[in-house]
Design a protein that fits this description.
alpha+beta, 17% strand, 254 residues, binds zinc ion, 7 strands, 6 helices, single chain, four-stranded mixed beta sheet
Length: 254
């Protein structure tokens, strides 16, 4: 069982801080990435914050997108705002330029990108688009081609996602089923197909998370981006692991 720690700053959305529930995702710092070894050799880590805005709403905010900065994932000190960068994100076949804020820890001298939950690292398409396509591939009768058409992406792009899912299926299944149990969800006897099992594991973990206030609104694929630090389909990554406050949820190694 890991302990969730609330973010220490002002309330979001006019909430009264005293009433905040410890597992409300709007209060959680969810970070994933490699933490071993010297900080000096680590690339800046992405922190995925549980953004519920649509891509259009987020893009419309420009550089003024406002949310509570998380604490430093290394030392838990409050972080300060630190410039940012532009990147593109694609949804419904349309590219949008968005602003990604960065935060900096003075003590660690490290900056962190603060990705909204609809983003995955190194993927142009949103977590929702990619996730829905993957679900269609594993659940639907038609395979990759109709899923690509629905997503509005080239066939080869959707095929790439599906291949990444297959390559990471065992790792993701173990991690998300374990997370589901940790969140009070059921112990699921997994089916045989790897990719389908991984999608099922993500859904099971999200369902378990939905028993806590706030998660329902974020959707399963943004949830998956949050808990994997945006690296759901990353090529070179350690097992997805979840940092909530000072505690890290380390999934079993398959
Ligand atoms: Zn720090």
């Amino acid at each position: 069982m890991f302990v969730h720690r609330v973010w220490p700053a002002r309330g979001l959305n006019g909430e009264d801080r005293g009433s905040l529930y410890a597992r409300d995702p709007s209060r959680l710092s969810l970070v994933a990435g490699s933490q071993e070894g010297s900080k000096a050799v680590l690339p800046p880590m992405a922190i995925v914050w549980p953004c519920t805005l649509s891509v259009d709403e987020y893009a419309a905010c420009g550089r003024e997108v406002d949310f509570e900065l998380p604490e430093c994932p290394e030392c838990s000190a409050p972080m300060g705002s630190w410039w940012g960068y532009e990147r593109y994100v694609r949804q419904g076949g349309v590219d949008r330029k968005i602003w990604i804020r960065r935060a900096r820890c003075k003590a660690c001298r490290v900056t962190h990108a603060l990705l909204p939950a609809f983003c995955l690292t190194n993927r142009l398409d949103t977590a929702d688009v990619i996730g829905d396509a993957l679900e269609a591939v594993v659940e639907g009768p038609g395979g990759v081609r109709p899923a690509a058409e629905t997503a509005g992406v080239p066939y080869t792009t959707a095929r790439g996602w599906a291949r990444r899912l297959v390559a990471r299926a065992q790792e993701l299944s173990v991690a998300f089923f374990a997370l589901a149990v940790d969140l009070g969800g059921p112990v699921v006897s997994a089916g045989s197909d790897g990719a389908r099992r991984a999608v099922s594991a993500i859904g099971t973990a999200w369902s378990a998370a939905c028993s806590f206030p706030g998660w329902v609104g974020i959707g399963r694929w943004r949830f998956a981006s949050c808990v994997s630090g945006g690296s759901l389909l990353a090529v070179n990554t350690n097992s997805p692991w979840l940092v909530v406050g000072r505690r890290r949820f380390m999934p079993p190694v398959p």
